[in-house]
Specification:
single chain, 94 residues, mainly alpha
Protein backbone atom coordinates (compact mmCIF):
# COMPACT_ATOMS: atom_id res chain seq x y z
CA UNK A 1 0.00 0.00 0.00
CA UNK A 2 1.36 3.40 -0.90
CA UNK A 3 2.03 6.20 1.56
CA UNK A 4 -0.80 8.21 0.01
CA UNK A 5 -3.45 5.67 0.92
CA UNK A 6 -1.93 5.00 4.33
CA UNK A 7 -1.92 8.69 5.24
CA UNK A 8 -5.41 9.22 3.79
CA UNK A 9 -6.74 6.20 5.70
CA UNK A 10 -5.24 7.32 8.99
CA UNK A 11 -6.47 10.89 8.56
CA UNK A 12 -9.95 9.67 7.58
CA UNK A 13 -10.16 7.39 10.60
CA UNK A 14 -9.21 10.21 12.97
CA UNK A 15 -11.73 12.58 11.38
CA UNK A 16 -14.54 10.05 11.44
CA UNK A 17 -13.89 9.16 15.07
CA UNK A 18 -14.29 12.84 15.92
CA UNK A 19 -17.37 13.15 13.70
CA UNK A 20 -19.21 10.21 15.28
CA UNK A 21 -20.04 11.89 18.64
CA UNK A 22 -21.33 14.95 16.79
CA UNK A 23 -23.63 12.81 14.65
CA UNK A 24 -24.92 10.75 17.56
CA UNK A 25 -25.83 13.82 19.61
CA UNK A 26 -27.28 15.97 16.83
CA UNK A 27 -29.86 18.25 18.48
CA UNK A 28 -32.19 18.41 15.48
CA UNK A 29 -32.31 14.62 15.07
CA UNK A 30 -32.85 14.07 18.80
CA UNK A 31 -35.69 16.63 18.90
CA UNK A 32 -37.43 14.84 16.03
CA UNK A 33 -37.19 11.61 18.05
CA UNK A 34 -38.70 13.44 21.05
CA UNK A 35 -35.57 13.03 23.13
CA UNK A 36 -33.80 15.67 25.17
CA UNK A 37 -31.27 17.40 22.97
CA UNK A 38 -27.96 18.51 24.48
CA UNK A 39 -27.19 22.19 24.49
CA UNK A 40 -24.66 23.13 21.81
CA UNK A 41 -21.43 24.07 23.45
CA UNK A 42 -17.69 24.24 23.29
CA UNK A 43 -17.25 20.46 23.07
CA UNK A 44 -19.29 20.26 19.86
CA UNK A 45 -17.30 23.11 18.29
CA UNK A 46 -13.98 21.55 19.27
CA UNK A 47 -15.01 18.20 17.79
CA UNK A 48 -16.13 19.94 14.60
CA UNK A 49 -12.88 21.84 14.16
CA UNK A 50 -10.89 18.79 15.22
CA UNK A 51 -12.48 16.84 12.39
CA UNK A 52 -10.74 19.17 9.93
CA UNK A 53 -7.28 19.01 11.52
CA UNK A 54 -6.16 15.78 9.80
CA UNK A 55 -6.90 17.39 6.43
CA UNK A 56 -4.92 20.46 7.42
CA UNK A 57 -2.04 18.20 8.46
CA UNK A 58 -2.08 16.54 5.04
CA UNK A 59 -1.97 19.94 3.33
CA UNK A 60 0.93 21.10 5.52
CA UNK A 61 2.83 17.89 4.69
CA UNK A 62 2.21 18.52 0.98
CA UNK A 63 0.27 15.28 0.56
CA UNK A 64 -2.27 16.65 -1.92
CA UNK A 65 -3.40 13.26 -3.30
CA UNK A 66 -3.93 12.00 0.26
CA UNK A 67 -5.83 15.20 1.06
CA UNK A 68 -8.20 14.64 -1.87
CA UNK A 69 -8.76 11.01 -0.85
CA UNK A 70 -9.37 12.13 2.77
CA UNK A 71 -11.83 14.78 1.61
CA UNK A 72 -13.79 12.25 -0.44
CA UNK A 73 -13.82 9.59 2.27
CA UNK A 74 -14.89 11.93 5.07
CA UNK A 75 -17.60 13.51 2.92
CA UNK A 76 -18.98 10.17 1.73
CA UNK A 77 -18.85 8.34 5.06
CA UNK A 78 -20.21 11.40 6.88
CA UNK A 79 -23.13 11.52 4.43
CA UNK A 80 -23.75 7.77 4.90
CA UNK A 81 -23.62 8.21 8.68
CA UNK A 82 -26.21 10.98 8.60
CA UNK A 83 -28.49 9.01 6.29
CA UNK A 84 -28.11 5.88 8.41
CA UNK A 85 -29.03 7.73 11.58
CA UNK A 86 -31.96 9.44 9.83
CA UNK A 87 -33.23 6.08 8.59
CA UNK A 88 -32.89 4.65 12.10
CA UNK A 89 -34.90 7.60 13.45
CA UNK A 90 -37.67 7.11 10.88
CA UNK A 91 -37.89 3.43 11.76
CA UNK A 92 -38.35 4.27 15.47
CA UNK A 93 -40.91 7.06 14.96
CA UNK A 94 -44.55 6.20 15.71
Amino acid sequence: MSATYSLAGLASLVSLLLLLPIALRDPKRLRSLRRAAPKPGVERKLLGWGTLLPGVALVVMGQWPAFLVWLGVVTTVGWLLVNGLAWQGRAQSP
